């Protein structure tokens, strides 16, 4: 690994970027956990009426809502699923495969730029899954409103 000389401004910016991307990843995990709990509660509530004799209209929209919530739950689980590939030379999964001397050798160069790139890719992937899960959850709520309207008919 090559060592590069950086200015104090670049050092500060790299440190800030690393902290920023790490914070964004934490935000997605927190949001995903809350939304996963919400979706689980809604699915549990829907399971309690699964054996009821409901109008066909209500069953169709209710089943569609369950499918949307299930798909959202899968996306949310992908958001909070740990990434342990170790491809990023500046990450703990990579370091876990090394002995102490190899770790010291890795610390010889500045890996912050590479780490920012890898963490940014991870953050974008997590936010994309989170956004799709929110969209599916909102669609499920609309379907549930339609299913409830079918009960009023």
TrEMBL record:
Q: Which InterPro entries match?
A: PycTM_dom (IPR043760)
Query: Which residues are in the Pycsar effector protein domain?
Result: 16-149
Q: Does the keyword Transmembrane helix apply?
A: yes
Give its localization. Cell membrane
Q: Name one Pfam family in it.
A: PycTM
Q: Report the coiled-coil segments.
A: none
Specify the protein name.
Answer: DUF5706 domain-containing protein
The transmembrane residues are 33-50, 56-80, 133-152
Domain of life where this protein originates: Bacteria
> Which keywords fit this entry according to its UniProt record?
Antiviral defense, Cell membrane, Membrane, Nucleotide-binding, Transmembrane, Transmembrane helix
């Amino acid at each position: 690994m090559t060592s590069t000389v950086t200015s104090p401004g670049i050092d500060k910016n790299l440190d800030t970027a690393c902290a920023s991307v790490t914070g964004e990843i934490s935000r997605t995990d927190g949001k995903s956990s809350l939304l996963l709990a919400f979706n689980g509660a809604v699915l549990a509530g829907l399971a309690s009426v699964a054996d009821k004799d409901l109008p066909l209209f209500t069953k169709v929209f209710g089943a569609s809502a369950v499918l949307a919530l299930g798909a959202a739950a899968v996306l949310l689980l992908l958001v909070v699923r740990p990434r342990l590939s170790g491809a990023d030379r500046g990450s703990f999964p990579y370091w876990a495969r090394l002995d102490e001397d190899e770790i010291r050798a890795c610390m010889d160069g500045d890996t912050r730029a590479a780490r920012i790139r890898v963490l940014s890719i991870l953050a974008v992937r997590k936010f994309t899954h989170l956004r799709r899960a929110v969209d599916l959850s909102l669609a499920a709520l609309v379907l549930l409103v339609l299913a409830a309207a079918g009960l009023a008919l």
